[in-house]
């Protein structure tokens, strides 16, 4: 198995994606992750080992706790999800992201503001590159602003984003009957 395969396999599980988010702002122990995610300590440790083997999480330090040694892990910062675009794992990763989106959407706080979008658009290559770069910057800013889980005066926020160029259809005519067949793009907000 290549390093890229190990990364993809590690990213292809909803619990491991959630663990990476929880460890982004502050190191977490397997026990703390288990409590937060509602899973067993053994399962949290297993997921941490897989994340560590893939180079996505690393030991941040140890501390004495209740007469034992607690290992605390942190997410290795970077953009491993964005790096998956050239691999055959896009479908697997999208299934994992869809799972987390469904789970998070079910926990959307009633009456709270959010942003929802869905789009299939045609852009110039220059526009696409600019939007992609700005989105990457916004997501980096979001992660940089992250606080440890349950920190005072924080709001728990969920987000799932996947933007990518689409392969051209063999037939560029409008297949849903809703357009003029010119190939002019449409999309939603």
UniProtKB/TrEMBL annotation:
Pfam families: HTH_20 (PF12840). Transmembrane segments: none annotated. Residues 179-189 have a biased composition (Gly residues). One of its GO terms (molecular function) is DNA-binding transcription factor activity. Residues 1-104 form the HTH arsR-type domain. Residues 169-189 are annotated as: Disordered. It comes from the Bacteria. This is ArsR family transcriptional regulator. It comes from Streptomyces armeniacus.
């Amino acid at each position: 198995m290549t390093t890229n395969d190990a990364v993809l396999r590690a990213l292809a599980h909803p619990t491991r994606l959630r663990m990476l988010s929880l460890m982004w702002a502050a190191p977490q122990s397997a026990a703390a992750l288990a409590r937060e995610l509602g899973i067993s300590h053994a399962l949290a440790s297993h997921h941490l080992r897989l994340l560590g083997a893939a180079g996505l999480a690393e030991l941040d330090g140890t501390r004495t706790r209740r007469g034992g040694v607690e290992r605390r892990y942190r997410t290795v910062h970077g953009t491993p999800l964005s790096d998956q675009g050239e691999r055959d794992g896009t479908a697997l990763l999208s299934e994992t992201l869809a799972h987390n989106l469904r789970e998070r959407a079910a926990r959307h706080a009633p009456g709270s503001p959010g942003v929802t979008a869905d789009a299939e658009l045609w852009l110039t290559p220059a526009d696409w590159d600019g939007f992609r770069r700005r989105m990457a910057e916004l997501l980096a800013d979001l992660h940089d602003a992250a606080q440890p889980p349950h920190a005072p005066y924080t709001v728990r926020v969920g987000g799932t984003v996947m933007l990518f160029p689409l392969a051209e259809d063999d037939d560029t005519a409008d297949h849903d009957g809703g357009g003029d067949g010119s190939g002019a793009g449409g999309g939603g907000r």
